[in-house]
Amino acid sequence: MPTEEENIQYLYLVLTHNGTPTINWPPISTALSLSPGATSKRWSRLKKAVEEGKPAGKGSYELLWLCVKHSSRDKALDWKTIAAQCGTTSGAASKRYSRMKQAWEKEGSSDSPPATPKKAATKTDKAATPKRKRASATKPKMNGGDKFQFEPASDAEDEIESPKKRARKPKNSNIKIKSEPEGLPTPEDSSEYTAFQGFTSQGNDYAFQGFGDEGGEDEKEDETFYESNEYAEAGVNESEYF
Questions:
Q1: Which of 15, 103, 158, 235 could serve as 114's disulfide partner, Cβ 3.0–4.6 Å?
Q2: Paired strand residues for 213
Q3: Calpha distance 214→240 (Å, rounded)
Q4: In the chain, how many H helices and how many E strands?
């Protein structure tokens, strides 16, 4: 966005590009509340500052707009000449002048130039928070005879008793420990019983000597005795005896 000094130089170029303009000073003096002589001197200072490239000073922007309004031209504005001196195109130069004139007329006063736009307030601007005032702490006055001194607190009061830790109860406290089993009963002596591979001994006086083959009823052969293993090998048919 062009600065105010750049706008002053641009308006001065538009006003004087066809030579010295013909200005009607009385309405300008009335608008500025100045005498005609004071208004003429202000114009002279403005013209000298712009031609020397120096700041025009306060009120120059307003004076230029009044001069443009109350000046007369024999010819229309030559935008090509103005654009060449500004280093831009004729269309851009013409649009710039139109925007400036529209903003000036929008103010509603023909005798005052448009106000320079101020910086718009942004959302990030935060309102200053008011500071809180601290109330002055007033100490109570004590009589001379009633002076009281605070006794320093004893070390015992400052000490904080640390909480005692409780003994942790074991989780398996209800487990009962079984006592060792008493001694097993002593087996009775088995010498009274006679071990036998086949039948139980009846306590007779004769030892078992195996199975015997008595033969047929009519046969008068001697009985043959077999051991337990020989009895199976001999192939004796048990059905003959049982």
A1: 103
A2: 224
A3: 10
A4: 8, 4
Contact 71, 22 (CB under 8 A): yes
Give the per-residue SS3 of 81-149.
HHHHHHCCCHHHHHHHHHHHHHHHHHCCCCCCCCCCCCCCCCCCCCCCCCCCCCCCCCCCCCCCCCCCC
Q: What is the pLDDT of residue 78?
A: 86
> For the chain, how are helix, strand and coil distributed in percent, rounded to 5?
35, 5, 60
- The string of pLDDT tens digits covering residues 47-89 is 899 888 888 888 888 888 888 888 887 778 888 888 888 888 8
Predicted confidence (pLDDT) per residue in 6-55, tens digit: 888 888 888 888 888 888 999 999 999 999 899 989 999 998 998 888 88
State the Cα–Cα distance between residues 82 and 184, nearest whole angstrom. Answer: 132
Cβ neighbours of 208 (radius 10 Å): 13
Please tell me the number of Cα atoms within 13 Å of 19 on its side-chain side.
6
Between CA 175 and CA 135 the distance in angstroms is 69
Question: Can you give the residue ranges of every domain in the chain?
Answer: 4-106, 194-240
Q: The tokens of 125 are what?
A: 């601007």
